[in-house]
Amino acid sequence: MEKQNKPKVSSKDIIIIIFIISLTALIITFINKMFEEREPRTELIHEEIINIKSFVLHWYQEFDEDELHTVNRNEISFSSGKYPLTFAVNRLRAVFPDGKAIFIVFNYIDYLEFYQSEGEIVAVISYHNSGRYTFVVK
Fold first, then answer.
1. Any idea what the Cα angle at residue 86 is, between residues 89 and 69, rounded to 5°?
2. d(CA 110, CA 126)
3. Distances from the Cα of 88 to the Cαs of 27, 85, 93, 104, in angstroms?
Protein backbone atom coordinates (compact mmCIF):
# COMPACT_ATOMS: atom_id res chain seq x y z
CA MET A 1 0.00 0.00 0.00
CA GLU A 2 1.03 3.44 -0.81
CA LYS A 3 0.98 6.11 1.80
CA GLN A 4 -0.89 9.20 0.83
CA ASN A 5 0.62 12.46 1.78
CA LYS A 6 -1.87 14.55 3.65
CA PRO A 7 -1.44 18.26 3.14
CA LYS A 8 -0.24 19.89 6.29
CA VAL A 9 -1.88 23.06 7.52
CA SER A 10 0.64 25.45 8.87
CA SER A 11 -0.01 27.99 11.58
CA LYS A 12 0.32 30.68 8.92
CA ASP A 13 -2.58 29.09 6.98
CA ILE A 14 -4.70 28.97 10.14
CA ILE A 15 -4.06 32.67 10.80
CA ILE A 16 -5.04 33.54 7.21
CA ILE A 17 -8.28 31.51 7.51
CA ILE A 18 -9.18 33.18 10.83
CA PHE A 19 -8.44 36.60 9.32
CA ILE A 20 -10.69 35.93 6.30
CA ILE A 21 -13.55 34.70 8.52
CA SER A 22 -13.20 37.73 10.82
CA LEU A 23 -13.12 40.13 7.87
CA THR A 24 -16.24 38.52 6.39
CA ALA A 25 -18.09 38.82 9.72
CA LEU A 26 -17.05 42.47 10.00
CA ILE A 27 -18.31 43.26 6.49
CA ILE A 28 -21.66 41.54 7.16
CA THR A 29 -22.05 43.49 10.42
CA PHE A 30 -21.25 46.78 8.66
CA ILE A 31 -23.79 46.10 5.89
CA ASN A 32 -26.49 45.26 8.46
CA LYS A 33 -25.80 48.51 10.33
CA MET A 34 -26.16 50.50 7.10
CA PHE A 35 -29.59 49.00 6.42
CA GLU A 36 -30.72 49.52 10.02
CA GLU A 37 -29.81 53.21 9.83
CA ARG A 38 -31.70 53.68 6.56
CA GLU A 39 -34.93 52.20 7.87
CA PRO A 40 -36.21 53.90 11.00
CA ARG A 41 -37.37 51.64 13.72
CA THR A 42 -41.07 50.94 13.70
CA GLU A 43 -41.40 51.68 17.41
CA LEU A 44 -39.95 55.19 16.94
CA ILE A 45 -42.45 55.95 14.18
CA HIS A 46 -45.29 54.56 16.29
CA GLU A 47 -44.18 56.68 19.26
CA GLU A 48 -44.25 59.85 17.14
CA ILE A 49 -47.72 58.98 15.81
CA ILE A 50 -49.04 58.50 19.35
CA ASN A 51 -47.38 61.76 20.47
CA ILE A 52 -48.82 63.86 17.65
CA LYS A 53 -52.29 62.32 18.01
CA SER A 54 -52.33 62.89 21.79
CA PHE A 55 -51.12 66.45 21.39
CA VAL A 56 -53.70 67.35 18.71
CA LEU A 57 -56.54 65.88 20.79
CA HIS A 58 -55.32 67.70 23.93
CA TRP A 59 -55.05 71.01 22.04
CA TYR A 60 -58.56 70.61 20.60
CA GLN A 61 -60.06 69.90 24.04
CA GLU A 62 -58.82 73.28 25.27
CA PHE A 63 -61.53 74.99 23.21
CA ASP A 64 -65.27 75.20 23.62
CA GLU A 65 -67.00 72.83 21.18
CA ASP A 66 -69.41 75.58 20.15
CA GLU A 67 -66.57 77.92 19.24
CA LEU A 68 -66.22 78.56 15.54
CA HIS A 69 -63.27 76.79 13.95
CA THR A 70 -61.66 76.78 10.52
CA VAL A 71 -60.06 73.74 8.91
CA ASN A 72 -57.45 74.16 6.20
CA ARG A 73 -55.20 71.54 4.71
CA ASN A 74 -52.43 71.76 7.31
CA GLU A 75 -54.14 73.88 9.96
CA ILE A 76 -57.06 74.06 12.37
CA SER A 77 -57.78 77.41 14.00
CA PHE A 78 -60.31 78.89 16.38
CA SER A 79 -61.57 82.45 16.77
CA SER A 80 -60.81 83.61 13.24
CA GLY A 81 -57.30 82.22 13.14
CA LYS A 82 -56.23 83.53 16.52
CA TYR A 83 -55.39 80.09 17.97
CA PRO A 84 -53.97 77.91 15.20
CA LEU A 85 -52.60 74.40 15.20
CA THR A 86 -50.31 74.27 12.17
CA PHE A 87 -48.07 71.57 10.74
CA ALA A 88 -45.26 72.57 8.37
CA VAL A 89 -41.79 71.22 7.60
CA ASN A 90 -41.88 68.40 10.18
CA ARG A 91 -42.94 70.85 12.90
CA LEU A 92 -46.18 71.24 14.76
CA ARG A 93 -47.01 74.68 16.16
CA ALA A 94 -49.93 75.15 18.51
CA VAL A 95 -51.26 78.27 20.19
CA PHE A 96 -53.44 77.70 23.24
CA PRO A 97 -56.25 79.98 24.57
CA ASP A 98 -53.91 81.34 27.27
CA GLY A 99 -51.59 82.57 24.49
CA LYS A 100 -48.95 79.92 25.11
CA ALA A 101 -47.32 78.67 21.89
CA ILE A 102 -45.67 75.26 21.61
CA PHE A 103 -43.45 73.92 18.83
CA ILE A 104 -42.73 70.23 18.43
CA VAL A 105 -40.26 68.80 15.90
CA PHE A 106 -40.82 65.32 14.47
CA ASN A 107 -38.24 63.06 12.85
CA TYR A 108 -40.49 60.57 11.06
CA ILE A 109 -43.76 62.45 10.53
CA ASP A 110 -43.72 63.91 7.02
CA TYR A 111 -47.07 65.67 6.99
CA LEU A 112 -50.24 66.24 9.00
CA GLU A 113 -53.36 67.07 7.04
CA PHE A 114 -56.84 68.03 8.25
CA TYR A 115 -60.19 67.88 6.51
CA GLN A 116 -63.87 67.87 7.43
CA SER A 117 -66.12 64.93 6.69
CA GLU A 118 -69.74 64.60 7.80
CA GLY A 119 -69.33 67.14 10.58
CA GLU A 120 -66.12 65.60 11.91
CA ILE A 121 -62.59 66.90 11.76
CA VAL A 122 -60.29 64.17 10.49
CA ALA A 123 -56.50 64.19 10.68
CA VAL A 124 -54.23 62.16 8.42
CA ILE A 125 -50.63 61.62 9.48
CA SER A 126 -48.21 60.77 6.67
CA TYR A 127 -45.00 59.20 7.86
CA HIS A 128 -41.77 57.88 6.40
CA ASN A 129 -42.77 58.55 2.77
CA SER A 130 -45.42 55.84 2.41
CA GLY A 131 -47.27 55.28 5.68
CA ARG A 132 -50.59 56.86 6.65
CA TYR A 133 -52.49 56.98 9.93
CA THR A 134 -55.96 58.54 10.21
CA PHE A 135 -57.86 59.60 13.32
CA VAL A 136 -60.89 61.73 14.21
CA VAL A 137 -60.17 64.96 16.09
CA LYS A 138 -63.83 65.81 16.75
1. 160
2. 5
3. 40, 10, 8, 11
User: 101 exposed, middle or buried (CB, 10 Å; 0-12, 13-18, 19+)?
Assistant: exposed
Kindly report whether the global pTM for this prediction surpasses the value 0.70: no
pLDDT string in tens for the chain (138-residue length): 566 677 777 888 889 999 999 999 999 988 887 776 666 678 888 899 999 999 999 988 888 776 777 888 888 888 666 788 999 888 999 988 888 899 999 888 888 999 888 888 899 999 877 788 998 988
Judge whether 114 and 123 are in contact, CB under 8 Å: yes
**Which of 113, 102, 31, 43 is closest to 71 using CA atoms?**
113
Domain ranges for the chain = 9-39, 42-136
Residues 96 and 62 sit within 8 Å (Cβ to Cβ) = yes
CB 77 within 8 A of CB 70: yes
